[in-house]
């Protein structure tokens, strides 16, 4: 019967009103929320703009019960799959379900449920809906409680469940670890339709599997996120380096200093040594009134330069001279180029929502909705100089039409019981190539940019660099086996335990749906 209904709906999805067969599907799921068989096009594409599918239907749940009902319904069919879609910010169709059921996780998910006291010396945490956007969590936590999560991503228009299913990294990761290291409890609906509360002590196999698990073992419907007192203000600073060795030395110095002897945020990026308005010197300044003096660049012939980006938290009660003194002391240890210091003060919320402003500009000029062939990697400290030599200075010496992030992270801040796989070494770097194509101007085609991504990965492999893809995407089981390495068997074991029919997250292309 279900297989017939699937076929019927696909053949008759141009009708404006629900027909009796669709109503039968809806009633069979016993939803308190709603199911939409018509307005599904948005769920068949994502931010990457590289893939498109046709979902069977979009479910807008009213709560965890509905999500469990959808999964149980799918398990009774011969081939239905289920994808949890947050804000659709995946790049390669990871949140899609071709001819399957897509759950719109943003519907009915409360940003913050409550503040709770944590055991084990963690202080406080907030219970957050899996479909809540981090930007809403930030605003609610700060305005209601004066608290804020410890670890972030650069862009906060992402859902809690979405980033926890990957890792969640940003400039605070060196100190607090990724977002997956900053949750103490999860509510998860598994691929068998069971709702399970799990933590590091209770149902720990599921807890650690789900964190960084790419949605393969369950859908996160609630997370208990660690928080701390939120500062009022941020001093945001950028300095420039001509040599990669000096850039990495200072970045690694900052992330290995004790708390109180370093900045609160450390990132960095590569930019082109030219006046290109997108890829060049102009990308470094923090304020429209600031100017980048190109004469300081006459000392180097390097095709690319390096910007170390740091930030210091403080409260309004701190006098400006105290903040200035601390900044000067911290910067005094660094070896950046003279006359390349840029800084600005802004509120803590403004700083964390800084990419939101870039999003507004990108939407205004059309590039936000254009394809985004992004590439994210973790590269070990032992290989990052070679990456700079072969990739930044050669393949990407003319820029990518967007940020080229590169900054170090401490492995010790990661809980390696999660599903995330990392390169070797105590320090590794995140490299994020955040391309923005220009839909209305002459620029490299999306196909060319995707090909360049493949070239970068192939060069890394051919030169023997130690790296792993972050937000990974492979089209074959062999690719996934190589990605997980000696952790593959464990990953498969957990899949068989918590989603034995491979109903969940089909867009990841790791497992194939099993017949019921």
From TrEMBL:
Reactions catalysed according to its record: N(6)-dimethylallyladenine + A + H2O = 3-methyl-2-butenal + adenine + AH2
GO molecular function terms noted in the UniProt entry: cytokinin dehydrogenase activity; FAD binding; oxidoreductase activity
Signal peptide residues on this chain, from the entry's feature table: none
Pfam families: Cytokin-bind, FAD_binding_4
Record GO biological process: cytokinin catabolic process
Keywords: FAD, Flavoprotein, Oxidoreductase
Keyword Oxidoreductase: yes
Positions of the FAD-binding PCMH-type domain: 51-230
Cofactor field: FAD
Highest taxon of source: Eukaryota
Enzyme Commission number(s) of this protein: 1.5.99.12
Family: Belongs to the oxygen-dependent FAD-linked oxidoreductase family.
Protein name: cytokinin dehydrogenase
The species this protein was found in: Helianthus annuus (Common sunflower)
């Amino acid at each position: 019967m279900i297989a017939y209904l699937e076929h019927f709906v696909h053949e008759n999805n141009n009708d404006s009103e629900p027909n009796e067969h669709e109503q039968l599907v809806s009633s069979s799921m016993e939803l308190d929320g709603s199911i939409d068989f018509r307005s599904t096009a948005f769920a068949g594409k994502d931010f990457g703009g590289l893939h498109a599918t046709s979902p069977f239907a979009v479910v807008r749940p009213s709560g965890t019960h509905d999500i469990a009902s959808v999964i149980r319904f799918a398990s009774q069919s011969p081939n239905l799959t289920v994808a949890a879609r947050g804000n659709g910010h995946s790049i390669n169709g990871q949140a899609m379900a071709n001819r399957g059921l897509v759950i719109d996780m943003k519907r009915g998910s409360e940003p913050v449920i409550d503040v709770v006291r944590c055991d084990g010396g963690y202080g406080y945490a907030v219970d957050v809906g899996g479909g809540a956007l981090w930007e809403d969590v930030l605003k609610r936590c700060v305005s209601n409680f004066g608290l804020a999560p410890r670890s972030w991503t650069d862009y906060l228009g992402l859902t809690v469940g979405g980033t926890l299913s990957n890792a969640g990294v940003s400039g605070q990761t060196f100190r607090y670890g990724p977002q997956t290291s900053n949750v103490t409890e999860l509510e998860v609906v598994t691929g068998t339709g069971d709702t399970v509360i799990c933590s590091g002590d209770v149902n720990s196999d599921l807890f650690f599997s789900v964190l960084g698990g790419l949605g393969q073992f369950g859908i996160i419907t609630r997370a208990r996120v660690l928080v701390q007192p939120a500062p009022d203000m941020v001093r945001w600073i950028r300095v420039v380096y001509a040599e990669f060795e000096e850039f990495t030395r200072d970045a690694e110095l900052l992330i290995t200093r004790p708390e109180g002897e370093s900045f609160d945020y450390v990132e960095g990026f590569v930019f082109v040594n030219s006046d290109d308005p997108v890829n060049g010197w102009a990308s470094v300044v923090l304020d429209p009134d600031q100017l980048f003096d190109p004469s300081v660049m006459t000392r180097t012939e390097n095709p690319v330069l390096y910007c170390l980006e740091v930030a210091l938290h403080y409260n309004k009660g701190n006098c400006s001279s105290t903040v200035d003194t601390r900044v000067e002391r911290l910067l005094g240890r660094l070896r950046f180029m003279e006359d390349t210091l840029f800084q600005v003060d802004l509120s803590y919320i403004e700083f964390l929502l800084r990419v939101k402003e870039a999003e507004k500009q990108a939407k205004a000029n059309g590039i936000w909705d254009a394809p985004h062939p992004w590439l994210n990697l973790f590269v070990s400290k032992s290989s990052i100089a070679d990456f700079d030599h072969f990739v930044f200075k050669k393949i990407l010496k003319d820029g990518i039409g967007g940020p080229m992030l590169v900054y170090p992270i401490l492995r010790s801040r990661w809980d390696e019981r999660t599903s995330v796989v990392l390169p070797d070494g105590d320090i590794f770097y995140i490299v994020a190539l955040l391309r923005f194509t220009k839909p209305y101007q002459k620029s490299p085609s999306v196909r060319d940019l995707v090909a360049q991504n493949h070239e970068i990965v192939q060069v890394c492999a051919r030169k023997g660099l130690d790296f792993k893809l972050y937000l990974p995407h492979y089209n074959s089981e062999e690719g996934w086996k190589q990605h997980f390495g000696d952790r593959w068997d464990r990953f498969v074991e957990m899949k068989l335990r918590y989603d034995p029919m491979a109903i969940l997250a089909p867009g990841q292309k790791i497992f194939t749906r099993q017949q019921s």
